Amino acid sequence: MLSSLPPREREIVDVLYERGASTVTEIAETLSDELSGSAIRAMLKRLEAKGFVAREASERGFVYAPSVSDKTARKSALSQVVRVFFNGSATSAAAALLGMQDEMSNSELDELEKMIAKARDGRVK
């Protein structure tokens, strides 16, 4: 989904996920390279046509926001990472995350345990 976007368009969508609804000026301030407002507006128009961005009028001018929920975008991005780097194995991806346990707090590890238990309980038996 998002991985199919050209790098510049993807960067703009990433900015919107990080900052929330933003104006062209606010987006421009966050981008890695300087782009003109018209170039950003052109990319936003393409992103809107592709269904990735929604535009709404406000007192600040047009405000742009992602039209795909962050949960859906995260799932899509993670699915691609699992497919590309872990040969489609969620178990291998989880093992890699757990290999980072030194960087995880006890509460994060507890949360993972709860999620695993919930996933087991939710499976069709």
How would you describe what is shown here?
With 125 residues, this protein is mostly helical. It is built from six helices and two strands, in the order αααββααα. A two-stranded antiparallel sheet has the order 1-2. A hairpin with a 2-residue loop joins strand 1 and strand 2 (61-66). The protein is elongated and about 50 Å long.
Q: How would the global form be characterised?
A: elongated
Low-pLDDT stretches:
none
Give the strand order of the largest sheet, numbering strands 1, 2, ... along the chain.
Answer: 1-2
**What proportion of the residues form beta strands (DSSP E)?**
5-15%
The value of Rg in angstroms is 18 Å
Summarize the structure.
61% of the residues lie in helices and 10% in strands. It is mainly alpha-helical and 125 residues long. The mean pLDDT is 88.
Task: Please write out the topology.
Layout: H1 7-19, H2 24-30, H3 37-50, E1 53-58, E2 61-66, H4 70-85, H5 90-98, H6 106-122
Antiparallel strand pairs: 1-2
Keywords:
125 residues; mainly alpha; two-stranded antiparallel ribbon; 6 helices; 61% helix; 10% strand; elongated
